[in-house]
Amino acid sequence: MTTNISRRRFTATIGLAAGSLLAGSRKILADIRGNDTKSGIVPTMVNAAAQAKITVQPIRRNISVLEGSGGNIAVLTGRDGKLLVDAGFAVSREGISRALASINADPIQHLINTHWHADHTDGNAWLHSEGAAIVAHENTRKRLAVDTRVEGWNWTFPAVPAGALPAKVFVADHKLHLNDTSISLKYYGPAHTESDVSVLFGEADVLHVADTWWNGVYPFIDYSTGGSIDGQIQAAEKNLALATDKMIIIPGHGPVGNKSDLAQFRDMLVTIRGNVAALKKQGRSFEEIVAAKPTLAYDAKWGQFLITPSAFTASVYMGV
Ligand SMILES: [Zn+2]
User: At what angle do helices 21-33 and 309-317 cross, to 10 degrees?
Assistant: First the structure.
């Protein structure tokens, strides 16, 4: 569906922008994602969240996962109040409130943003108004504080109000101890964006790895704010190094999984990166690379969500 458009646009763009392959592929990536405010990826995600029922999945000990509003939300409950990892979209306020109340009556007290993207931070304002103190990497605060453009989504996110900004930020790592649980936040370095952090619940052996893992679907990689295919692969390697055999791992998107699921994601990324890089090294054009279907062996499993095979090919192409 998008291939003809992408070929034509890419050829046109590249003809005009000789020597600027990266800029050209950014343009094409934006084209692939849709150019109007109704059918683009951001409105699609918001509409899906508005219509979704928010589900609650108990994970282990006092930890649950809420699904249905943008990224997966982890919830830790106890006498220190609820701690949420990620905030979903603001349109889901009612659904998330209902889901949280269905777990227990503990008040909302803490929120961690795994990175700055709106499908993980759009709910910051209402959660803060209900009492959540927000913690994130310093780059999350920097991005949320100003208008930020994501070319791959063809979308500019306006600066958020002061109450939606993380009040506490950190650089490399940060530790909390709440609800009888040691909580370790760790910065990945540039990965899916340049603001991604993991959240480890020590005693429960549960790890939220944010959008460094999309379980069963091709990932979106945000080159506009510091992400890259190589950063995404490095983060997957870090996750695998940290994962124990019994660990429950919460991806940014897709079902909760384990170490072997995570290894499949890493292997998919590495193989497709290799395929695309080899074709590019042969001097093939972007259109020839898409036509060669470097993702084909993975498309039936991984190509069924927001990021199509050609869009994922473009996003790998940009980084090799
Ligand atoms: Zn993201």
Answer: 160
How much distance in Å is there from the Cα of 16 to the middle of ligand 1?
31
15 alpha carbon – ligand 1 mean position (Å): 31
Contact in structure between 216 and 254 (CB atoms under 8 Å): yes
The single residue listed with the structure tokens 């913690």 is 135
Measured CA distances, 19 to 16, 22, 25, 57, 221 (Å): 9, 9, 12, 50, 23
Cα angle: 13, vertex 147, 312; to 5 degrees? 45
- Residue for token pair 């993207």: 117
- Ligand 1 centroid–CA 40 distance in Å is 16
**C-alpha 153 to ligand 1 mean position (Å):** 11
Measure 159 CA to ligand 1 centroid, in angstroms: 17
| C-alpha pair distances (Å), 184 with each of 175, 181, 202, 242 | 5, 10, 8, 12
The whole-model pTM stands at 0.89
In 120-154, which positions are buried (b, 16+ CB within 10 angstroms) versus exposed (e)?
A: bbbbbbbbbeeebbbbbbebbbbbbeeebebbbbb
12-68 residue pLDDT tens:
222 222 223 444 454 444 444 444 455 688 998 999 999 999 999 999 999 999 999
CA 53, 54, 60, 61 dihedral sign is: negative
Per-residue pLDDT of 76-85, as tens digits, reads 999 999 999 9
CA of 221 to the centre of ligand 1 (A): 8
108-112 and 133-137: which strand pairing? Answer: parallel
Instruction: Tell me which residues have their CB within 5 A of the ion that is ligand 1.
Output: 117, 211
